[in-house]
Write a structure and sequence with these properties.
This protein is an all-alpha fold and 215 residues long. It contains seven helices and two strands. It has a single domain, classed as Ferritin, core subunit, four-helix bundle (Ferritin). It is globular and about 55 Å long.
Length: 215
Amino acid sequence: MVTITPTAATGATIKPGPMVTVVPERAKTDEQLASFAPGSGLNAPYLADQLSAFLAHERDGVALYTALHALTNNPALQSKYGQSREESEQAVAVYEALVGQLRGSAQYVSPPARLTMQTDAKLLEAFLLTGSADELAQEMAGVQAVLAASALCVGNTEVLKRLAREADGDVGAALLMASSRLEGPQRGHLDWAMTPVSPWRSRWRDHESPRSSVV
């Protein structure tokens, strides 16, 4: 079972920072991260921090699709968001397995991961003000949120592939295998989010309902 929200109860660890104080049993240091991805030839703490951020974004994707599913009354969108949520959970599982294979912990939440979580939270915050918009505007904003989130997913996987080419030995193979499992669903989310834009504009111009063009 994957972890969507790392907490002290799940064994989460973080790295101390200029304004972050961590109890010793929850602290993770660069010295401890130096053993991550042994034999890769890569900067181990940097790689651990990057993968933690990529994993955090996929976890946030689960929360985003859960929220969008709850906010829409459109059956087609509910189905799509439900499927996307499951695929995001699978992406979380891929990253957690990869981190474990590289001798790390998926419970480590790096400084870049915490910043990613703050950025992703802004997407969700926008939907707390849904009373100021009609249903169609909310649905459009939902698709735009998917566009933004999935674009970063695709970008992260591209970085993963480039890291795979730089890494030595089994680490490179593990990174490449993970990227191959992530890429298809992520690009599917991105392509879907880009597809409705043109039909919607056409419907507006003709003063027709855009409902049938959403998916």
